[in-house]
Structures are given as C-alpha cells and as structure tokens.
Design goal:
mainly alpha; 395 residues; single chain; globular
C-alpha cells in the first residue's frame, strides 16, 4: 500500500490541513518579500551603483555560485528534515536581502548577495519536495501549480506595494524595499519551522547521480540556460536600451503575476491529466518563438508582450518536477532535486557573464537571445524522450 492509499486519522488530517495553510502562508510571504527586493533591484543597480551589462552579468554569475553546491549542501544536511533546511535557508536569505540596500560598492554587494544566495538555494532545492510530500503522491502537478499561483498572487502584492511606494515617494531609498522584503522572508522562515512531520520526506540518500536520471539533469541544465538569458537580459534590455523606468517595470511584472496566478493552477492540472510530455513540448516551442521575437523585434510594446508570454510559459516548468517524481526511487527525491539544481546552475554561473560579454563585444543586446533560440531548439528535441501518458499515483 502506498502513502497515497494509507488512510489518515482525523487528527492527522487536521494536522495535514494545518501544514498546507502554513506552507501556503510562508510561500506567500516569501514571494511578497522577494518581489519587494527583485522588482526594483535592476533599477537599483543602474541608479545607485551605475551598473552596465558587464557588472550585471558578473553579479548574476557570482550570485548563482551557491546553486552549484546545492547537491553538496543537501547531502551535508541529510540528517535534517526538508522543512528545517527550508526554514534555515529562508532566514539566511531574508537577513541578507534586508541589508542589501545599505551597500554602495559593487564588491560589497557581491559579498552580501552570495551570502543570501546560499539560503535561497537551500529553500528552492527542497521547496518542491515539501509540496510533493504534503500531496502524499496525489495530484502533484496540481499542488505545484497551486503554489505557483500563490507565489504569483504574492508577487502581485509585493510589486503592487512597491509600485505604490515608488509613485508616492519618487525619491525614496531602495533600502526601504529591501528591508521590508527581508523581514517578510524571515517571517516565512519562522512559519516553515512550525511545519509538522507531514512535511518530512523520510530517510534519504546523501548525493545521487544516476544514469536513469540523465534526461532530467539535461533538461534542468537547458532550463537553467533559458532562464538566465531571459530573466536577466530581457528586463535589463528594457531598462538600459529602451529606458523603461522602475514604475513601468513594476507594473509590467504586476500584470505578469496576475496572468500567472490565473494560468498556473490550470497548467498543473493539465500536467496531471495528460502527462508532462505534451505540455513541456508546447513549452519548448513557445520559448523558440519568444526568443525569436526578442532577437528580431525592436518595438517596446512587442517586447512587453513577449516578456509576459515567457513568464506565463514558465508555469509549464512544473512538468520537470512531475517527471522526476514519476521516475525517482524512494528516498531520492530531495537529493535528485538538489543535483538538478546543481546542473541548472552550471548554466546559471556561466550564461550571465557569457551573455554580457557577447552583448558588450557586439554592442547588440539581441545576440544573447539568438543563443536562446538554439537552446530552446535543443530542449524541444530532448522532449521527445519523455514518457507519454498521465502520471500514476505514487508514494
């Protein structure tokens, strides 16, 4: 009998419902706080540190270095439950983000950013594992999509709050955004420490690197390349090349979050219903079109539309985790997710600085997006090796 089939006592059901409420609340608090930091951050780089594409790419590459060590960190902390690892990561990330606005030199910002990035990657490595554990093997895609929607609603709140502040106080210090966001994330860490044993995945391996997980690792590596190219250079191109102010960037991300909140739960249900192969194939084709658009269009309105489309497509990424959950051995979910994070961040460390150098040397922001077209095409080809059909219930 699987965990999904094992009946719960009334007290266990009540505790599980309480855990879902806590996890939903802390997911919201993290999303709210992180957007208070992330929404105006690139404008902070431009206005306070006078950054260019090279300094941006260098910072992003160094920020992602802790992600390379995700598998090692998860293996080192194997004695701790996933919820405790997540709580520690959230507190570290929140403190680091809260003090980010106090720096006025590039290298001091690098030091603080790498520090809080350790906590962020601890949290992001085990987040999906906690969701799937609480789901007890049932409708994993729906629950992952639901949490994506909660994050999107939190993003709406965070960006909306930041937008109102930026309009009311046009010369307000960026420090206000960062401190408020950091405190919200620290509160999320406290709530995470209150989760019960329902959120614990049980005994697990230290570090896993199996041939049978090779396709998952390849897909996460390619996804890391895609994510870095678009998330960094799409917004920075709007700010640097087209002069989009912080208020417009916040509004654009706000609209984006509304669309994600509406679409993410439906995408998660679709993955549960028909399997991950079809949705992820559609995702890859959509990415090819988005990157082609950014590689050729020079109309800011069209670039806005592509920016929104890419972030909606990102919700299909739950299919990667659902695919791993389909094939993973018992006790290997968290270490496999950690190894996937490490593979993802091989790209995350190299792509930002590589793309920045390409942009700077050619004096054309569109060249990194042509690389994105090639990566999306490789991803499309790799999707053909995914299994077909819906995902069976699993312990």
């Amino acid at each position: 009998m699987t965990a999904a089939d094992t009946p719960l006592t009334p007290n266990q059901e009540a505790t599980l419902r309480r855990d879902w409420r806590i996890f939903t609340a802390l997911t919201f608090l993290f999303g709210f706080g992180f957007q208070l930091y992330g929404g105006p951050f690139q404008n902070f780089l431009k206005d306070v540190l006078h950054a260019n594409e090279i300094t941006l790419g260098g910072l992003e590459s160094m920020r992602e270095i802790p992600g390379l060590l995700a598998a090692l960190m998860a293996g080192t902390l194997v004695a701790f439950a996933e919820s405790r690892i997540a709580a520690l990561g959230l507190v570290v990330a929140g403190i680091g983000i809260a003090v980010s606005g106090r720096v006025h030199t590039f290298w001091s910002l690098v030091a603080i950013t790498v520090g809080w990035s350790v906590g962020f990657h601890l949290w992001s490595t085990v987040q999906s594992a906690i969701i799937l554990t609480l789901a007890r093997g049932k409708e994993g895609g729906r629950h992952l999509g639901r949490m994506s929607a909660v994050s999107a609603v939190a993003t709406i709140g965070g960006l909306g709050f930041a937008y109102v502040l930026s309009m009311l106080f046009k010369h307000m210090s960026y420090d206000v955004f960062f401190v408020t966001g950091g405190l919200s994330i620290v509160t999320a860490g406290y709530l995470c420490s209150r989760l019960s044993t329902h959120a614990e995945g049980g005994p697990r391996s230290r570090i896993v690197f199996r041939r049978e997980y090779g396709l998952y690792y390849i897909l996460t590596f390619l996804e890391g390349c895609r994510r870095q190219i678009f998330s960094i250079f799409a917004s920075f191109a709007l700010i640097i090349v087209y002069g989009v102010p912080v208020q417009h960037m916040l509004l654009l991300q706000l609209v984006n979050s509304v669309l994600i909140a509406l679409t993410a739960p439906r995408i998660g249900k679709l993955v549960d219903k028909i399997g991950e192969k079809g949705p992820l194939t559609f995702y890859s084709i959509g990415l090819i079109l988005v990157f082609l658009g950014y590689s050729t269009f020079q109309n800011v309105g069209a670039l806005y539309a592509l920016f929104l489309l890419d972030n909606i497509l990102f919700s299909f990424g739950v299919g990667f985790t659902v695919y791993l959950h389909r094939i993973v051995r018992p006790g290997e979910m968290t270490p496999c997710l950690a190894m996937g994070t490490t593979m993802n961040h091989i790209a995350a460390v190299t792509v930002p600085i590589g793309g920045a150098i390409l942009w700077k040397s050619t004096n054309n922001y569109q060249y990194p997006f042509w690389v994105g077209v090639a990566i999306a095409c490789v991803s499309w080809f790799a999707m053909r090796f995914l299994p077909s059909g819906p995902i069976p219930a699993k312990a």
